[in-house]
């Protein structure tokens, strides 16, 4: 429909034909005017300290971000633990250490102080879960690698209570084997008993406008019966929705996705709600034999890739080691990364590798009469392991996309899971809104664009109980995304060194993004940032309402 949207004092006051005088008019003829995108899974907790616009997410229409996911937050924080926390974030979320050290002040202690430090200084709306790892580290210090004693659990519960009372959006936790600290030790929340986890969920249930977020090992492969029961029990104990990241889709195994959604069915039986996040497009994701990446999670690979580089190269040149690594990759829960034929060679450094840039490893291997893994390792070794590798997932067939389309319409599936702000040098999920809109308008056209917008705005707003956000209607906050349907999209990833201490990250430039408004003020105009910082730090109870059913 064609309509005017009138905004006053940060709120939408009318939609339709508006003829009253206005201080300023924006001509959006021929453009789409939509609610601002709500990204339910980010790690902008540190980045907002030096980048109030949460780039590149805001470039792509995002007006609200939810941080503090996967059990990892920067508060509450004992001063003694700042170094531990920074190094843990390097290991689990791929943030450059020098950037973390120089980009944030690290002068807060309580969760309230952390939120207060961002208030009035951000361009996007931002809300934060309270991380289980931070709670346990604050109370137990270096002695966290065990179950908590009764008095410790009481103090952890009280600390969560204080953090939620100051505005935390809920509790996030991880029990995934993929999460270890800088010393290779399981992160603090992985040592918690189920009794502790459920006790904390009970605390969450005492606060309005809260929810839960959890990661367990089966989230990236197959949920065990025990994990399904735990996720369901967590939601039921809190009487709050729980979301987890991320639901993978394979058209050859549609039953796998339905198995993962058993957690949602079980939660409903208990009176709770469990929601799976899934991405509507592939996130650009590179791998490396030099720096930490998902390859390290393949069975038997960490023992090789964690060696000093000269010894690592020597091991990689050993045929017996290569064979063990190949067998481990194929047997791993991340075996989708073992399709080495479908890796594309990215940046290279050795002159003899230059002509291989942009080519599939499988094609190169066939020319050489070798298997793909041998070819891949030879290329990487010649680059002193610096080669950037881009795996192209096999699940890019019509039947895969049809299954995704069906799942997007499931009540307990939510679009999102960008991980924006994390793994900054090797993964880029933040442009998913513009890329998905382009796909709906000019690509596969799996959904009407109106439905695509609703799934990225109204549905996440309902899950988190965000007051007066996620829709364009009178009385709602004026979080608005204006884009050109003919050109909206995102550029290919590029490398930038624009983080503090010249930290490296991947970026994607917006296309067809005319304006992004947060609380009625423009933060992006014609794809460029403004100096405005109108964002709200969302606090539970004040800016959210409770709804277990979303």
Total number of helices: 18
| Tally of DSSP β-strands | 24
Q: What structural class results from the helix and strand content?
A: alpha/beta
User: How many structurally independent domains?
Assistant: 2
Give the N-to-C terminal Cα separation: 27 Å
CATH class of the largest domain equals Alpha Beta
Mean pLDDT: 96
Strand order of the largest sheet: 7-8-9-10-11-15
The helix content, as a percent range, equals 25-40%
Architecture of the largest domain, according to CATH?
Answer: Alpha-Beta Barrel
Strand content: 15-25%
What's a concise summary of this model?
The chain has 550 residues and is an alpha/beta fold.
Write the layout of secondary structure elements.
Elements: E1 4-8, E2 11-16, E3 32-35, E4 37-39, E5 62-67, H1 82-93, H2 97-103, H3 111-118, E6 125-128, E7 130-131, H4 132-140, H5 150-165, E8 170-175, H6 194-204, E9 211-216, H7 225-238, E10 241-245, H8 254-260, H9 262-270, E11 273-278, E12 284-285, H10 302-305, H11 309-316, H12 319-331, E13 343-345, H13 361-368, H14 372-382, E14 389-391, H15 398-408, E15 413-415, E16 427-428, H16 432-442, H17 449-456, H18 458-464, E17 480-483, E18 489-490, E19 494-499, E20 503-507, E21 510-511, E22 513-518, E23 521-525, E24 528-529
Parallel strand pairs: 4-5, 5-6, 7-8, 8-9, 9-10, 10-11, 11-15
Antiparallel strand pairs: 1-2, 3-17, 12-16, 13-14, 17-22, 18-21, 19-20, 22-23, 23-24
Helix pairs in contact: 4-5, 5-6, 6-7, 7-9, 13-14, 16-17
